[in-house]
UniProtKB/TrEMBL annotation:
InterPro entries: PEX11. One of its GO terms (cellular component) is peroxisomal membrane. It holds the Pfam family PEX11. The chain crosses the membrane at residues 83-100, 120-144. Keywords: Membrane, Peroxisome, Peroxisome biogenesis, Transmembrane, Transmembrane helix. Belongs to the peroxin-11 family. Its main location: membrane. It comes from the Eukaryota. This is Peroxisomal membrane protein 11B. Involved in peroxisomal proliferation. Promotes peroxisomal duplication, aggregation or elongation without fission.
Length: 230
């Protein structure tokens, strides 16, 4: 059986794993900057540099990531017409997000005109938030379907034979694990939606350093949970 170090190595070998680690750095440093900005400006400046460097690194790691959404639509768009429709909208939004994020990264590091950064950031964030809305809806539909399936299995378990009870117990466990994973996905998507809204429509709540920091960490840690090897 793999121990914690083995699992950490496997986790960090994944692109999503290293992204969640660097995302943790990014938003911890944002909260540190906010906390010490008035009292320790030299530490605040270092934290800000760490935050910016982490954000740019994550954009580099995500190169070509828009193909993930395309492949999801190509291979497994959904089991029902409703889920297929939601998958097209969700993955389409995510593809826009990751595709234009390339240009945002290039503008921020000086390869492209820096004036493009604001426009690319808006388009990327709009696609991101659009996609997250439909990912959230899809997950809630599947969670609801899982609850219904679990209720039916419970009836079978109460009325069935010993073998049937063992099979239904296994089925119920799978449904519960899937539900937890989908709830983690919802938490991450809601948190990332708050961050995206800060770019699309700046407002005191979404743009506050604490709101952004907490949202970023919720998203990162939900991703840790979902991607951690079992």
């Amino acid at each position: 059986m793999n121990d914690t170090v083995d699992k950490l190595v496997i986790f960090l070998a994944k692109r999503d794993g290293i992204d969640k680690l660097v995302k943790t750095f990014q938003y911890v440093s944002k909260l540190v900057h906010w906390h010490v900005e008035a009292t320790r400006p030299e530490i605040a400046q270092r934290a800000k540099q760490w935050e910016v460097a982490s954000g740019l690194s994550r954009k580099a790691f995500r190169s070509g990531r828009f193909l993930t959404g395309f492949n999801a639509l190509r291979r497994n768009p959904g089991s029902t017409p409703t889920l297929k429709f939601l998958a097209v909208l969700a993955n389409g939004g995510e593809m826009v997000y990751f595709f234009f994020d390339h240009f945002l990264w290039l503008a921020r590091i000086g390869v492209l005109d820096g004036k493009l950064a604001r426009r690319m950031s808006f388009i990327s964030a709009f696609g991101e938030s659009f996609g997250y809305i439909f990912f959230i809806v899809s997950d809630f539909i599947l969670i609801t379907e899982g609850i219904r399936a679990e209720r039916k299995l419970r009836v079978v378990k109460e009325e069935g034979s010993k073998d049937a009870k063992e099979n239904t117990s296994s089925g119920i466990m799978k449904i519960r694990v899937d539900r937890v994973m989908r709830l983690m996905a919802v938490a991450a998507n809601v948190a990332d939606l708050v961050i995206a809204l800060a770019d699309i429509e700046p407002n005191p709540f979404c743009n506050h350093a604490v709101s952004l920091g907490i949202s970023g960490l919720v998203s990162a840690w939900a991703g840790w949970y979902r991607n951690w090897p079992s």
